[in-house]
Amino acid sequence: MNVGDLYWVELPMRGGHAQTGRRPAIVVQKTSSLSTVLLVPLTSQLDTKRFPGTVLITKTPENGLRQDSVALVFQLAATDKRYLMGALGVLADSVMEQIWQSLDEITGRI
């Protein structure tokens, strides 16, 4: 498991507007001995691109997505690794750079 890998994940109910259920998510943490991993969930609802803290991800053979999706960077969350269901693929470095830039913007780092 590496930063930029896409996995199927089964996100548990957390309440509010947080994403739940089976969906792709991006690993944004170096592999560690922790039992959790930081993930950015994806949605196929392209209209969510209107919100700050989102990045459009176009499907490619490398990332394994079945359709274009939106990374919900503003919903970055620690998730137990046991909820990871299987690897999909890997994001291009240029897309990961957009994820980092979005994270910087919503956290006020830039």
Folded structure, characterized:
Helix content is 14%, strand content 37%. It is mainly β. The protein has one helix spanning 93-107, and strands at residues 5-11, 21-27, 36-43, 54-57, 69-72, 77-80, 84-90. A hairpin with an 8-residue loop joins strand 2 (21-27) and strand 3 (36-43). Strands 1, 2, 3, 4, 5, 6 and 7 form a 7-stranded antiparallel β-sheet that branches. It is built from 1 helix and 7 strands; from the N terminus they run E-E-E-E-E-E-E-H. The mean pLDDT is 91. It has one domain (5-107): SH3 type barrels (Roll).
Keyword list:
110 residues; mainly beta; SH3 type barrels; 1 helix
Topology of this protein?
Layout: E1 5-11, E2 21-27, E3 36-43, E4 54-57, E5 69-72, E6 77-80, E7 84-90, H1 93-107
Antiparallel strand pairs: 1-2, 1-7, 2-3, 3-5, 3-6, 4-5
Tell me the helix content: 10-25%
Helix and strand content put the structural class at mainly beta
Instruction: Write down the oligomeric state.
Output: single chain
The CATH architecture comes to Roll
Beta strands, count: 7
Task: Estimate the global geometry from the Cα principal axes.
Answer: globular
> Biggest sheet, open or closed, and with what strands and sense?
7 strands, antiparallel
The residue-averaged pLDDT reads 91
Radius of gyration: 13 Å
Low-confidence stretches: none
Distance between the termini: 28 Å
Provide the domain count. 1
Name of the level-1 CATH class: Mainly Beta
Question: Number of helical segments?
Answer: 1
Series of H and E elements? EEEEEEEH
CATH topology: SH3 type barrels
Report the β-strand fraction as a percent range: 35-45%
